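re: that chain from earlier
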Amino acid sequence: MMYIGGEKIFGVMRMNFIQSPSAIERRSMEIIAPYLADYNLTADEIKVYSRIIHAAGDVEYAPLIRISTGAIESIKAALLDGRDVFVDVEMVRTGINKRSLSKFGGAVHCRVADDEIKKIAVDEKITRSMAAMRSFGRGLDGGIVAIGNAPTALFEVLRMIEEDDVRPAAVIGVPVGFVGAADSKAALAAQQEIPFITVEGTKGGSPIAVAALNAILYMLDSARR
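^ sequence. v structure.
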């Protein structure tokens, strides 16, 4: 329990609770651990699963997370090589630990709010996130794609992989919602060209994409704070 007692101050109960960020994180991981015990995960996979579950506050993510063979290793290698991260929305860009990323020479790119992208989206009658991903083109080669919001962005990346031979190091694809999200993630899991991390069904979102990538960044950068 986070609350460990309390006292009345001016007639209001003031609770005593864990205030240290590291202690909160440690206790959270202890609570999550039993829910992963039966999944035969590697140590690195446990860290990714745990961060996702922690970000969601939802242990029901455990049976839904999918990490393809070699995905974590591919992301680690790309990060260590200073490769960039390409995201679909500003919420993902904001959440990624850019201090850790920059230590290895990488940066985060998001174009969804660019005026040029808005115009392309209107002219071509596509979503802005789709237009933004398309605009990265061969720049995605060797980089990491992290999609937390827009199924159309993930569908576009999958099209680019299949039709344009674009080759990112890995795709973290966890768009959320009821229209296209589950289908786009199923398509990501079905392809065998690019390593991936995803979550089945309608669950997902920007915090989940951030949690997955930051989990791997933190494996490489223990001094992240």
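The domain at 64-220 is CATH 3.40.50.10230 (Rossmann fold).
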